[in-house]
Amino acid sequence: MSFTRAIATVGGFTLLSRIAGFARDIVLSAVLGSGAVADAFFVAFKLPNFFRRLFAEGAFSAAFVPLFARELQAGGRAEALAFARQAQAALLLVLVPFTALLIFAMPWVMALLAPGMRDDAPTFALAVDFGRIAFPYLLFISLASLYGGVLNSIDRFAHVAATPILLNLALIGAVLGLTPLLPNSGYAASIGVAIAGVLQWLWLLAACARDGVGMKLVRPRWTERVGRLVKLATPVAIGGGVQQIGVMLDVVWASLLPVGTISALYYADRIAQLPLGVVGIAIGTALLPLLARELRAGHAASAMTHQNRAIEYGLLFSLPAALALGLLAEPIIRILFEHGRFGPADTARAAGALAAYAVGLPAFVLVKALTPGFFAREDTRSPLYIAVAAIAVNVALNVFFLYATTLAEVGIALASSLSGWLNAALLAAVLLRRRQWIGDTRLVSRGLRILAATLAMGVVLWAMLAWLEPSLARSGVLGTAVLLGLCMAGGGAYAVVGALLGVVRLSELRGILRRPPGVRPTDVRSGDPDERP
Fold first, then answer.
1. Is the pTM for the entire model greater than 0.85?
2. Could you tell me the residue ranges of all domains in the chain?
């Protein structure tokens, strides 16, 4: 599968997932609102997601995919699959007792995560209950992430990219179906999270079996390959832990602010995550296994080209998305979430945070495009040091914004955006210094043209927003139609100017739909992997 087509596949299914996620958040905002129950649930939901990004999508995935690609290249599918099953056994050996321990220690964990909640005993008790119900999600989603690494490495992207849709559907079903039967909607949402973990695990377990890489259980053993995995994963775990500590510190800061701040940041982040998920995660998912295979095969020039295209595609979508979200933050939040228990004051707070998150959106996408350049070379230490520096700046900025200004939740979001830009800049600087990434002529030329097309789109949106602002002042059918019209007009302006400037050519779009000739990574010899050490 071509790199561009892989990005399109992952991005397309991720877009469907984000649309389902919007439906989920509309339901949550209407049923949970942004009060104490919502704050308690969102804190509880962040906890398994924190460790998911640390264990599964962070350290484990970054270390596992290059090693799996090495085994696939050198020994074929049998060796690679044997290694994957050994990795699964090692992951279970850590996650099962860890999950049990965190469920038992949930009151102490919540006291660290949201110290401001301890002053409100009922809300704190809800957060502990919700956390205990939702936390088993970590175990199942971590296994699902491992299976996703296996499938992505053999060019099976669709099932993995579609997996998050199950989380959204499970949450919607649980909130709507179980809320009348339970004390409040937070319990229903927490049960939905746990159910979603099981569904996602089963979905990818079946996909692996269908594609000939069944992930059956084996006895945990310490082997050279497992040792190498642990050695590579440890720095990423520390770095990922530092990054996630930065994310969780946002909850700590928000818990010290008035009730509803945590929810405002959550809803704003959900909107900002749409382009990041569709573009950034798609690029990172497709790029890491490709770079690992090419570098392992000695094709450094091809790897460099794909690194440049990843950055180009990231800018192509993230720059206009960031400007559009900044300009349309308030009407977007109002139209999507101002229903039921979510009122105008909640809209104003979430919109300010969304505009601040939009500042860092291109940086977050660039980080997704740059970090595979390290991980594919089995360098997991450099991103760790860079992450530590970025998070230190994030903490300093949060302290400044919260105690020297009146920015509140906007300051928390802005600190994340500015530290994201520092992270991206340092990653690029290190790769440039090592000459492991050099921007080619096409990247520089198209980057400037993308910027010009983005500015043209911004002018169109600004003019139309001033004209149509009265129609966007309320939610409902009219406001929704006007917002969609604005988005289409902005997208149309960007596409027209981009076409005139040669940002994207028709021949390249046709290339997305073509599969290049040659041997696929899956066309390797197979055998009985369980006979391997």
1. no
2. 36-247
